[in-house]
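Section handout, structural biology tutorial.
Before the tutorial, make sure you can parse a SMILES string by hand: atoms, branches in parentheses, ring closures as digits. In the record below the ligand is zinc ion, and the chain has 196 residues. In the tutorial you will relate the predicted structure tokens back to the input. Do not try to memorize them.
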Amino acid sequence: MDYHSTSFVKSQIMPSGRTHDRITLWTLPAIVGLTTLSTRNSTVTLLVAGGYLFSGLMFGPDLDIYSVQFKRWGWLRGLWIPYQRSMRHRSRLSHGFLLGTILRLCYLLGILGLGIGLVILLGQAFFNLDWHWGERAIALGIWLRNHRIGLIALFIGLELGAMSHAIADWTGSCYKRWQRNRAKAKGRRGKAKSFK
Ligand SMILES: [Zn+2]
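Predicted structure of the complex:
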């Protein structure tokens, strides 16, 4: 895939990475204010705001293309190449409501799980690592249950960040389409006048 030409086309029809960054940073105080007002809980507010920032700056829908979000993963950016190759830019799988965030989470957690599992298997094979999968799975289940409110808050933050991005993309596209249609209509009117 020619990432540069793709990102060039993208830059012509929708907000740039910098515009998305600005939207994320400008809307952050509103997210913090609304979450504080509705929950009165500083931990929940911190998790929603943290998820929103993370999603807006480096875990958002544009991970499906060579983008600012993708570049911010630094030497870990290679993790996202299979993700990019497996979906069309701006498809519902990356930019869709809930689906985009859920798929990205499954993808990242899947890769992390595979990596950690591999390290543990190697540890067991070569260093006699004392590890019991059943006990760990139970401990993980308990941890997830005990932290469910925080995890839901984090997910809401991630989804809000992704949606602010998708809404900006959609608004940008609508505006460009409106401009193009207006220019075409003007051109037609100009031609009609010159024939009179
Ligand atoms: Zn986008």
